[in-house]
Amino acid sequence: MQRQPARVAENPALTYTPWVVHPMPAGPVCPPELWILIPTRDSTSVTHTTIVLTELAMTTQVPHCVYWCERSNIPRSRNTLVDYVRSAVGPGRDRAWCLWVDSDIMIPTESVPALRTAIEASWRSGVGFTAHYPMVSGDSHMIMTKDLPTDFAPNVTAKDMRGFPDGAQVPMCGFGCLLVPQDLRYEFRTDRWGEDVYYWHDHPDEFVSYRRDVRIQHHKAVWL
Prior knowledge:
By secondary structure, the protein is an alpha/beta fold. It has helices at 46-60, 74-89, 112-125, 158-162, 195-202; strands spanning 7-8, 15-16, 34-40, 64-70, 95-101, 105-106, 129-132, 142-143, 169-170, 172-173, 177-183, 208-215, 217-218.
């Protein structure tokens, strides 16, 4: 990928080069910690979600922090949140465990134990995960190829997702509820395909696991 000029972050002291992909090393890529990041345009569900996720972070008994950011669009919110994390972890760290939760996601309190188990499993394996939430359209939030455009890489249907085994490898998915060893040098970008699609396309060797027991609610979704 062609190297792009450095982006000046909201804090002028923070700059980094966007769209340059840094490979994820094998095994655990960073110490057990939890950066809970909530990008939003409208603050929907932020209060409820923050309370539930704070309970989750406290029960994991590891260093944690909850950030939420409201900007003019979701990619800008994501980039500002990554700036926060990169500044907090300090120089020399290219990755950090980030739990992305969109503001239109509702995490039921009863899902916290399964979510905690999934997070701890990811810390041990070094592989992140995506939660279970189908869409009203009949699709899921998962795409089983890295191809672009996504007109030729359709989402897995919600019906198909029911048959996926727990721990199935997912090469591309939405960031609605996703734990990932986040590349802190990456800048989210978007046009018609969406910033989450581009993240996975720009990280061709990365994937996450599907955790079917982590059941959450999406405001534009239905339960299977």
